[in-house]
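call fold target=Peptide deformylase
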Amino acid sequence: MAVRDLRYFGDPVLTTACDPITTFDTSTKALVDDLLDTVALPGRAGLAAPQIGVSLRAFSYNVDGKLGYVLNPELVELSEETREVSEGCLSVPELWFPVERSVSAVVRGVDANNEPVTVSGTGVLAQCLQHETDHLNGMLYLTRLTSDRRKEAMRESRKSGWFWRR
């Protein structure tokens, strides 16, 4: 369908919990197509619907040659083992900070036909599943940073040319 414009940190849609998808029709399929087209660009691992201005529980991923999506996802399993990983976000461009994430994760949801879907992953895919699910709950990765790192991220964000201002 189309590569959609991104929303940036400061836009209220990024800090609002998303509504579940309840209608599975052509508009749902169009959203899925847009999410897949937008995440397929080079350098993108994941994309949540609010990042393109849609406050619905949907995300796409593009990790290690695996391109897919999940509607109404819920994190159902996280490994106890965690690791500090460098993390960035399309809605917080150019800023990368260490974040603690589970090494493996499992997400359950549905596809565009309302059929069950389970996605499990380790490493970058696990990080992506956690990051995108956070987006759907109205949380940016910046909230997971230590206090000092969060202050630094806020300073850098406000100095940037992309920061969303009212």
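return ok
The chain has one domain: 12-159. Residues 12-159 form a domain with the Peptide Deformylase fold (CATH 3.90.45.10).
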